[in-house]
Amino acid sequence: MHRKAKEGADAERRRLTTTRRGAAPGTTSPAGSESQVLRARAPLRWLVAELVDRRAESRTAQTLVFDVPGWPEHLAGQHVDVRLTAEDGYSTQRSYSVASAPDGDRVELTIQRVEDGEVSPYLMDVLERGEQVELRGPIGGWFVWRPERAEPVLLVGGGSGVVPLMSMVRTRGALGGSAPFRLLYSVREPDDQLYVPELLRGEPGLDTEYLYTRAAPPEHPRPVGRLRAEDLVRGGWPADQRPICYVCGPTGFVENAATLLTGLGHDPGRIRTERFGPSGG
Amino acid sequence: MAIISRGFHGRRPDPGRKLPPGQYEVHDFPVLSAGPTPHVTHDEWEFTLTTETGARHTWDWAQLMAMPAETPTVDLHCVTKWSKFGTHWEGVSLDSLMEDVETAADFALVHSYGGYSTNLPLEDLLDGKAWIAHRYDGEELAPEHGGPARLLVPHLYLWKSAKWVRGIELLLDDEPGFWEGLGYHSYGDPWREQRYQGD
Predict the structure, then answer these.
(1) Which residues of B touch A161 (CB under 8 A)?
(2) I need a labelling partner for A189 at 20 to 30 A (CA). Which of A195, B30, B71, B105 fits?
(3) Domain made up of B24-28+60-192: CATH architecture
């Protein structure tokens, strides 16, 4: 047994007087100032979210538009928890990325259907306009982009992993961020693409490139297949421009993309990842 | 007072299985991390306990392998809502690693290869509650799940079970780790649903 030489110090009391220092030591990240901001926040309360609209995004995805009175404005890339409660009191929760730019009490979530899922079929098929769910957030202070940042941004999205990246694109557009954006968006086939008209329309300073892993449109120049280093060279930024890279998608996609980026010389501390899997949905 | 979701029936866990509030059961093993997966070889790997006086206790891979191993079967609860029951691990108990360590510390700050960190009270690492795990389900721990070795402290949300663990700092005062500095709960008890600060 180790010798715990406690000298009258009351462990319980000491725990209540924890010291809060700046950035956590050992994190190779510019997270210090960001965490200070979040730390000052009040506890996250459950809020009432009323469904006001819904849009089909693909065969298997919908955007749900909620009105959430009292919503504290989110940062691009953050997510929310949604809670459903059955009549007998059973409740369950899921996390969803916010798809929209900050816009008052309005919060848009893009939901990917999980076949046999407990929550996504309810949200997509049963919940009606004017009905309510509970929601709390915004959550997550790492996979975020702030419009005051000017360095180049590379967004690498796989499937529905594009959702938080879309919030970054929209936030840049809405708040006039000056950072140049490049979006590499990998989908199995054209029918899986989300936000098609909006990304097709594009905007100045945003370059979007599609990668298809299973079936591409006939005129598409790139052969189908998973993300490769040459895709990141062609559609991304050279490492010496020190872009910040956001990678979101299923685990295999994120592992592959992050490994390729570090292999191309990108600083691991500037590669932020988020996994977006259908697990349990 | 919760809002009742009309027409929502939900699923219940299998009888005999108890889920912490807000969680659901998965059968796969989801992977979450904030950055690229570090790839650390057994030759490079080292684990260091540092006390509040600066005393260091270091183990290399061969020394860790020479320690008595335990084979805990535990339930995992991730703050992103999934829970996985009955996972099989092999690892070295923190009680064994702490055996010759003299400290008055009440807190621990765990550090990982790749820069991740997480904090918890030292007592939550002791008395058979935590391991440096190096095998999962009978095989070497895969890098995406934290290999070569990760902390396993299953009674707290899984972000406390730091992947790619390389050391633990023993401290007199609590210091927030990576997620704890970004709005997540300092302690993280799934049964009390301590997901975020203020929960």
Answers:
(1) none
(2) B30
(3) Alpha-Beta Complex (3.90)
